[in-house]
Design goal:
The chain has 411 residues and is of the alpha+beta class. 45% of the residues lie in helices and 20% in strands. The chain contains 15 helices and eleven strands. Helix 1 (39-46) packs across helix 7, helix 9 packs across helix 12 and helix 9 packs across helix 15. The model has no long low-confidence stretch (mean pLDDT 95).
């Protein structure tokens, strides 16, 4: 793997000999907050709705006929536009890439808004999604990361074509990286091609204007509870979350291993065994660790009978405290490490996966070949590190969000 900087352009190249398809990922950092919630998502949807030379139907048909797969992923910290194509179609695919990224007309704004509203409303009809939305919105209250689906629904009509055009300008002036995986015949010629034809991918080194969010502040005490009444439910949807150190922290791999042992490894996790199998509390139960550029969330989730809300919350505490006070077993530690490294290996097989991973790691400030470093750090995590991570989380303020029939809100 090579990292080449030329004319202020960051290019990561993973030369994968004898592979038939090449993937090129264009990563754009989101360095400024949205003016209105949903602007980045709407911008991304409009990218493929036609350019100055091709309308949406023509563009879609030509991409399909030439077997060029285009995918756009929008997250809190970045927008990724990926092109996957046969090696011999490199020039053609990159012509489409340049046209889409530079010349999109962002037409059909109102049509896309209408479609987006319908999709959001449909998603929020799902009780788990609704509870998660309220949970994240409050947990990050006052910060850009609180721009959830429901907030987007409130602000979508405020977004104008000018707002989308301004978003385009900001994206092109953000931190950027090109990440490529494929059979590269001549690296120098390859780099020169991008320098000549994609000068808009020069990376602006300015720092992100989005503030770090490292502490959740409950309205009082160290725990806040949101109760959302929905009387037609047979299941309660419960989240409990903590703002914790993110991916750049020394605690990242420690929390990752702890999370795997506690609740993210499926049938073998402690939460699954104790709350679902032994106590029969859960239809679904898990823990999660979502890392962002400026923050991170460690959370518990359970879907259970409404009468079991308090018992479930007590179960979360009990399992976290148990792990904080008593180190995990050798078998648990070994299994967690194997689970994490196995998933990383599984999701690092194709050129699309490799280009995506390396671009993401670089944009997040983790450097080149971070996956190898990550594996080393995971393998160095000790049983004491896992307990230390659990103790760290226990010291944090937290938020509980429960969606259930109102008569069960006696907790």
């Amino acid at each position: 793997m090579q990292h080449i900087i030329k004319n202020d352009m960051d290019i990561i190249i993973n030369d994968r000999k004898n592979t038939p398809r090449t993937c090129v990922c264009f990563y754009f950092a989101i360095d400024e907050e949205e003016k209105f919630s949903g602007m980045h998502g709407l911008f991304s949807r409009l990218l493929l709705q036609g350019t100055k030379t091709r309308n949406a139907q023509t563009l879609a048909k030509e991409l399909e006929n030439n077997c060029i797969d285009v995918s756009i992923k929008t997250k809190q910290d970045y927008i990724k536009v990926s092109f996957l194509f046969l090696n011999e179609d490199f020039n053609l695919a990159m012509d489409y890439a340049r046209d889409i990224l530079l010349n999109s007309t962002f037409e059909d704004l109102e049509k896309e808004k209408f479609k987006m509203k319908g999709e959001i409303k449909s998603d929020l009809d799902n009780p788990r999604v609704l509870a998660s939305d309220k949970f994240i919105k409050r947990l990050f209250d006052g910060h850009y990361y609180s721009n959830t689906a429901s907030k987007t629904l409130e602000e979508l009509d405020k977004i104008s074509t000018k707002d989308i055009m301004d978003t385009h300008k900001k994206i092109l002036n953000s931190r950027k990286v090109l990440s490529i995986a494929g059979d590269i015949k001549n690296t120098q010629e390859f780099v020169e091609y991008f320098v000549k034809n994609f000068d808009f991918m020069k990376s602006h080194k300015s720092c992100s204007k989005i503030q770090t969010y490292d502490t959740f502040k409950p309205k009082e005490g160290n725990l806040e509870i949101i109760r959302i009444p929905k009387n037609d439910l047979n299941q309660a949807q419960i989240f409990r979350g903590f703002i914790v150190p993110s991916i750049q922290s020394e605690f990242y791999t420690k929390i990752s291993v702890m999370n795997n042992i506690l609740g993210s490894s499926g049938l073998s996790s402690r939460l699954f065994v104790e709350l679902r199998d032994r106590q029969g509390l859960a239809y679904t139960v898990r823990s999660g660790y979502e890392t962002l550029y400026k923050s991170a969330v460690f959370s518990f989730y359970i879907a259970t009978e409404p009468k079991n809300i308090k018992k479930s919350l007590d179960g979360f505490n009990e399992q976290l405290e148990k792990l904080a006070n008593i180190n995990p077993t050798d078998e648990e530690l070994k299994g967690a490490k194997e689970n994490i490294t196995g998933k990383l290996e599984y999701f690092s097989q194709t050129n699309s996966q490799l280009a995506s991973i390396e671009g993401y790691n670089y944009l997040m400030g983790l450097g080149l070949n971070y996956s190898d470093k990550f594996l080393e750090m995971i393998n160095s995590v000790t049983k004491q590190d896992v307990s230390d991570a659990a103790r760290l989380i226990l010291q944090k303020e937290s938020l509980v969000c429960a969606l259930a029939p109102e008569k069960f809100f006696n907790f």
